[in-house]
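User: Show me a protein chain along with its predicted structure.
Assistant: Here is one chain, sequence first, then structure tokens.
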Amino acid sequence: MIERHDIIAGYKELLDRSPESDAVVTAHLATHTSVEAFRASLRQSPEYLIKSGAPRKSPKTTQDWRQTKIITRNTLDSFVASSDNVGPPGSPQTDEFWRGTHYAPETKVNQKLDPFGEEYVAQQIELYKEISVRDLNQQANELTDFILADHVAGANPYTLFPPTSVALHTVRVSRAVQYSGLMSGDHVLDMGCGWGTSCELMAFCGLEVTGLDINPRFVELVNTRAKRIGHKVGAVQGSFEDIPGDSLYDAALYYESLHHAVKPWETLSLVHSRLKAGGKLMLAGEPVNDMWKHWGIRTDPLSVYCIRKFGWFESGWSADFISRCVKRCGFEIEHFEAEPGSIGWIMIARKAG
């Protein structure tokens, strides 16, 4: 059993500071069932590794990183190759293979810097480049190729995902809509809509949906499926920095997408300008955690795998930081809590005015 005072004591002993906010304490209480598990998570955080001066020498063999559970710059490729041999991400075999594993960064990140400042952003980009061995180019690295016909004809856009995974995504999006207070016919902008599952679910709930994605293949998929099914959904190609047109929306959803934004406060400001007065911001399926004091590149095995193999930008934020981002952009938070199980955090905010 873990209690509030255990969280505070662990932070002071291991990180020499207090938790950022009550939301962070609540997150730990919801995530960890024992004091030992909580302390183990702190010891795996980049902040602790940097503070404690943990050894950063690379294991010489694949077997070494499996034994230490610490991935380093020199063992990244063997980590990805070994993971591919075990099974796809999300499979029980891979989950077990990755259990307890984390990446030990070599890039130094000064967490005392202004987290909104260019110097801090530049250090996190350097960490991304260390793991990905790429320059940051989201126009090239954030694309996914697939056989369009297979996904158009499927029962859902994912098509090849197991039913349990599809059900989890369905729950996440549905819960966000449930908390939003939206009315039938309201127009939602689905930012980074990807495969379009969130578009179809919101349309099924009676909403009009415009999906936006950087990948023209996803835009084609969403529009083709909408025409086949008859949903009131349309998709356009754009980015977090460029929303085509001048329409104002009743709400905007980021589902498993905002964490790809290098500067989330900038895309949130843009979305704020494209919402009607009182319009709703919905965040769901996003990575709220305490890997960093404010925000940074995630160092869990799934994120490291995706960064190295695909070049995706995978960041995460503390509950306190993402709350500050949202408020900084002119929103008032109405709901922000961790959902049970693997559903993750859901935030609903309202455009002031």
